[in-house]
Amino acid sequence: MYFNSKLPNDGTTIFTVMSNMAKEFGAVNLSQGFPDFEPDPYLLELATQYFYQGKNQYAQMTGVPLLRERLSEKFNGLYGIHLHEEDEITITAGGTQGIFTAISTLIRPGEEVIYFEPAYDSYRPAIELCGGIAKPIILEGPDYTIDWSLVRKMFSAQTKLIIINTPNNPTGRIWSANDMLNLQQVLSNTEVYLLSDEVYEHLIFDGKKHESILNYPELRARGFAVFSFGKTYHVTGWKIGYVVAPPLLTKEFRKVHQFNVFSVNTPLQYALADYMEDPGQYMKLNHFYEEKRDYFLALLSGTGLKPLSCEGTYFQCCDYSELSSENDIEFTKWLVKEVGIAAIPLSSFYHNPPNARIIRFCFAKKEETLALAGERLKRLRKLTQ
Ligand SMILES: Cc1ncc(COP(=O)(O)O)c(C=O)c1O
Q1: Cβ 170 under 6 angstroms from ligand 1
Q2: For the chain, what is the mean pLDDT?
Q3: Three-state SS string across the chain, please?
Q4: CB of 230 closer than 6 A to ligand 1?
Q5: Residue 332, pLDDT score
Q6: With contact defined as beta carbons under 8 Å apart, do 189 and 158 qualify?
Q7: Alpha-carbon distance 367 to 52, whole Å?
Q8: Is the pTM of this model over 0.90?
Q9: Could you tell me the CA-to-CA distances from 42 to 75, 206, 222, 233, 284 in Å, in that order?
Q10: Does residue 199 have its Cβ closer than 6 Å to ligand 1?
Q11: What is the per-residue pLDDT for 15?
Q12: Percent of the chain having pLDDT more than 90?
């Protein structure tokens, strides 16, 4: 039977392809973004405890109240704001579901969504599944700076939503206060909503500060902010996140959420609520990942891979043009087969990629994993001569 695909241009993602190739060639897998180390044993203890304490049935549709309370306290500590957990915070099955549900809540066929590429791969399919029109603004390396006059030009009468992501996957760049003010200005006097993907909020380096829409009242009033426990507590496989939005938006969001997942893993929500009692756990994340970034940067030195600026996330982008003139897909395939390192070509984060020679590595790995990658990368120059 013929199937008329709703996503005709989306096949198996490059992340799956690279992870499979990494296995096939025994490569060090620095492609997909997840830690290869375990979370804090105390968090695991809490989770186990709640499995045996009878917390095994459906949670509240909106999320376990104590967890939402803890989140409200967290943002009070971070930005001095008072979020009402009852009608402004919803627990989701990871950041991706939060993004998908927010887009489904807002977008009707023919409405336009502006976002910046390179971008996390779920935005465009989510827009298109709702019948929306994706309008990417192309940012190019090495700096990926935003041309605000171009952003203004992208707006039309059909524009319904703009999506931002800081710290950014894949570039590792962050938005400045000036970017936020520019966004605020562009959005003022419009009816355009905002979706702010902040899943890497605590992974930010060199003493820099995360710019959250929650800290900008005008942006917060029209926005959904999306977060992920997976990134913050090294538990990407738990797939638990949350979405913060003003009451009116949350009300509509929950209408979709209740028919989408209804509720999220109960015992793990209780465990996360207890674990969040200590804000130190997320406050020290910057330092933890900054050390890993610096270690990885030292390993790259002399390899011919030129690291781009990484201000946040656990991704390091590198320009390989000194080593090869192949396109980035061919180069990553070669890298996994001949050097034994799996990375992601940056072109896979664009709909129409610019002609750049940049690849992305994930450094959320144990020291020995990174050290082994470093050993292998030492051979790069010789192999490319
Ligand atoms: C930018 C960005 N947004 C959202 C997500 C999704 O987070 P989760 O694993 O909680 O669904 C990711 C995960 O890689 C991401 O990189």
Answers
A1: no
A2: 96
A3: CCCCCCCCCCCCCHHHHHHHHHHHCCCEECCCCCCCCCCCHHHHHHHHHHHHCCCCCCCCCCCCHHHHHHHHHHHHHHHCCCCCHHHHEEEECHHHHHHHHHHHHHCCCCCEEEEEECCCCCHHHHHHHCCCEEEEEECCCCCCCCCHHHHHHHCCCCEEEEEEECCCCCCCCCCCHHHHHHHHHHHCCCCCEEEEECCCCCCECCCCCCCCHHHCHHHHCCEEEEEEHHHHCCCHHHCCEEEECCHHHHHHHHHHHHHHCCCCCHHHHHHHHHHCCCCHHHHCHHHHHHHHHHHHHHHHCCCCCEECCCCECCEEEEECCCCCCCCHHHHHHHHHHHHCEECEEHHHHCCCCCCCCEEEEECCCCHHHHHHHHHHHCCHHHHHC
A4: yes
A5: 96
A6: no
A7: 34
A8: yes
A9: 23, 29, 37, 11, 16
A10: yes
A11: 86
A12: 93
> Which amino acid would we find at residue 228?
S
- For ligand 1, whether the C-beta of 167 sits within 6 Å is no
CB-CB contact of 64 with 265 (8 Å): no
Domains of the chain: 14-32+284-384 (3.90.1150.10), 41-278 (3.40.640.10)
CA angle 154, 156, 160 (to 5 degrees): 95
Question: 325 C-alpha to center of ligand 1: Å?
Answer: 31
111 CA to centre of ligand 1 in angstroms: 24
Rounded CA-CA distance 64/141 in Å is 42
